[in-house]
Fold these 2 entries.
Entry 1:
Amino acid sequence: MQRKAGFPPALTVSAGFTLVELLVTIAIISMLASIILTNVNSAREKARIGAGKHLYAQLDSTLSEVVGKWSFEEGSGSTVRDGSGYGNSGTLNGGSRRTESECGLGLGRCIFFGGSGNFIEVPHSESLAPIQNITVAAWIQRTGDCPITADTCMIVNKEHDYEVGIRSGNTLQWAIKPAGGTWFWHNTSIVIPQGKWTHVAVAYDGAGVYSYRDGALGERFDYANGNLERSGAVLRISGRLSQPSGSTFNGLIDEVRIYSEALTAYQIQQMYAEGAPKHRVAENRFPCM
């Protein structure tokens, strides 16, 4: 596991390609092959993108410690179903809305958070409060700047346990609370671009916190403070429990995952590579394809 802060040189598996780029390229080739070999019409296009989501789900099944898995594919109602098997379904609050056209995914839904008090609330369960290791991951698209306050553009918050968000300067920020201790916030140097789907992941292994953007390690921060707190607070996607009308994420969120283990760099690279074609990130990384 890489130990140097900042964006280190990526592992190169062949001339001109990093491991992440190779994984994305394989995913693109698979999608192109399916288009070439089939007479693509509306029905088949839906099946193709659905297969891509199935592939993403298969990755989750190989990671046994997924405890929260929200893909936001419900067609109606306020319930947001959890696909982890732990029953951690949530409820839409404050006018947050699913939108296919704004997601820009061709097929499938995400959640748009655009106003004060927009969030998803998930009741507390011990499965969502791992005490030793944790990984929080999501696809996000920031649609505006995050205000200049300490707690803005929250992605995931479990009050007094852990949180991941974006703060002023549009950089990734995380916070964790050690058992019996106080909140510890850390603002990384990882800038989250506006108007582009970006995959973010933060993993804690008991000795350090690893922050990733689009499958690449952006920062390792030494933090060896033992077990995490287990407060009993609800979990929120967009927004923070201690600020009911503030801290709302400014943009779109999709495919939120929580794992009760610290995923490896390779596992996070896989997660990014599987989700990139669906979120049309590949065309930005490979403009000639």
Note: Confidence is low (pLDDT under 50) at residues 1-13, 34-42, 285-289.
Entry 2:
Amino acid sequence: MSKKGIPEKATLLLIGPTPPPYHGVGMAMQAILDSSIATQFRLVHLDITDRRGIGHVDQPDLYDVFLFVKQFFRNGMLIVRERPALFYIPISQTRIGFIRDSLFILPALMMRSRVIVHLHGANFESLADQGGFLWKRYLDFILRRVARFIVLGEMLRPIFGRWAAPDRISVVPNGVIQEKAEMSERRLSAQRPFRILFLSTLCRQKGLFVLLDAIPLIVREEKDVGFEIAGPWASEDVRREAERRLTENGMTDRVRFVGQITGEEKRRFLRSGDLFIFPGVQQEGQPLTVLEAMSEGLPVVATDRGCLRETVAEGVTGFIVPPNSAEAIAEKVIHLIRHPGRRDQLAINAAKRVKESYTVEQFVFRLEEVFGQTLIASGRQNRGGVRLESTP
């Protein structure tokens, strides 16, 4: 209770990055901070963003050590001062990242906060299977004390099955902002050249080189086609390798690299295309770029990674192909170029599917439910009050 006798809200401490750089975890955190959750809980946010750019994500160096030490002590101070009822953190899938996250989690456990772990990928099991006896015992020690796990799709629930009962694992798909879905006449007609889009960090793990290998296979069958590739380069080595492949295949005039785009520029980019390709190689979770493309009425050809098979309805909003298969990508793309009627129907279905299941409002609603359920399970209630804090 406050000094005036007014009940106060339960405190929710959020640990995580915000844009820029632009990636799924940071954008999801920003959506939480901007949402109605701030009216239901007293939010305190520890921003752990490395502002040096996307190229430094998952590339630890001495500066990261400095940042972590600073953030570690700030985290401890916030936990002691604020006594959060709930502690929310997006969990890393790398060993170094998990160790960092666990050191954020430990003080929260010591202060009896209910810890909520949110996995934005699908590769955590491989992390758990690495290392020896001590590493696995450490994972067990941390994760068996987590109050609630969040995954992106139903098919990802088993990832945390060894540490939690099913009722402690919640599904909260990603969500995107969707403006009024209106398919442009240019999209639903014989647009030429046929535009194929790719939007992501430009690196091997996101399938850039698989896409570049598919381009000559597509152009061999369909001449009137162009490729627009947007996103920041992960490194100069990746840029040089991409340029080398395009030059060797004689495809440099077929591909335009747009660079990093955000906001309205990104929406215009997606609206200019006929088809979106996401050929991810690593175990993706549920890439926001796929949802953004679908929200703008783009059929999607994506690899069978993470819960994309659950997100992209096969033959309804797009197609799922095996990883690392330029041939499979080319086959589906050529099929959609040659069947405009089916492509148009997939486009309409894609926008409808996002509206029904993957908007940012639905993301916030589901997350708010998880927070509320976890709070109730702790024996605490969420009442009254009005404060939102963000701690850089």
Note: DSSP finds 14 helices and 13 strands in the chain.
